[in-house]
Amino acid sequence: MEIESIIRCHGESCGDVRHDLYRVPEIDLNPDLVRIVMVSEAAPAQPEDWFFAGGKALFAQTTVQAFKDAGEEVSSIQDVLGLGVYLTTAVKCGKTHYGIATSTIQTCSVLLEAELELFVFADVLMLMGDVAIKAVNAIARRNGEPRVIPVGPTYKLRGGDFRFRNMKVLPSYVQAGPSFFIEKSKRRMIAEDIAAALLYVRPS
Questions:
Q1: Distance between CA 26 and CA 19 in Å, rounded?
Q2: Is the dihedral of CA 172, 117, 168, 37 positive or negative?
Q3: 3-class secondary structure, 150
Q4: What is the DSSP letter of 147?
Q5: Per-residue pLDDT, 204
Q6: Which CATH superfamily is domain 11-199 in?
Q7: Sheet of 17-18, strands arranged across
Q8: Which of 76, 95, 172, 185 allows an S-S link to 193, with CB 3.0 to 4.6 Å?
Q9: Directed axis angle between helix 58-69 and helix 184-201, to 10°?
Q10: Alpha carbon distances (Å) from 105 to 93, 132, 204
Q11: pLDDT tens for each residue of 12-65
């Protein structure tokens, strides 16, 4: 299945993103093999930093390092995919400011919802940062479902028992981007959350 041929933006107008930086995973994969969906914040400001732009891409480097921190022997995004992990973003375009408007997150959550529906055998949904959390809460609200993640700081929410449809939900911090190398305490928590996700999907 080619993700980019299925998940497409239809020209929605979001004022705080760059539509020329629109990105969805350009990969061909078997969705039945995906056990963990990891949702980060937004597409990068530089196309060469995208998850699937090569080994030197910033998103690839920080994500691979996060899995290494969690004790996994990986050296590339392909290795991460091989663990049954699918990587995407809540907002598909590059942002123009530090923050992202709630209206933009809500609009783009329609694409994220369609994306999540592709992975019927996924057991864990990792929400890497506030934007990903808001996007999934927006999906739930739009469909008359209860809020997935309650209001509160992520460090207090980690480890809670949250569910979204058939998936266990783990709120965490953004692993894709420069902040990963700067905020060491969050880096440790990201590693712990990845380890918990992998433990959950692996046979005992």
A1: 17
A2: negative
A3: coil
A4: P
A5: 67
A6: Uracil-DNA glycosylase-like domain (3.40.470.10)
A7: 17-18, 85-95, 36-43, 124-128, 167-172, 162-164
A8: 172
A9: 70
A10: 11, 8, 37
A11: 678 788 888 989 998 989 999 999 999 999 999 999 999 999 878 999 999 999
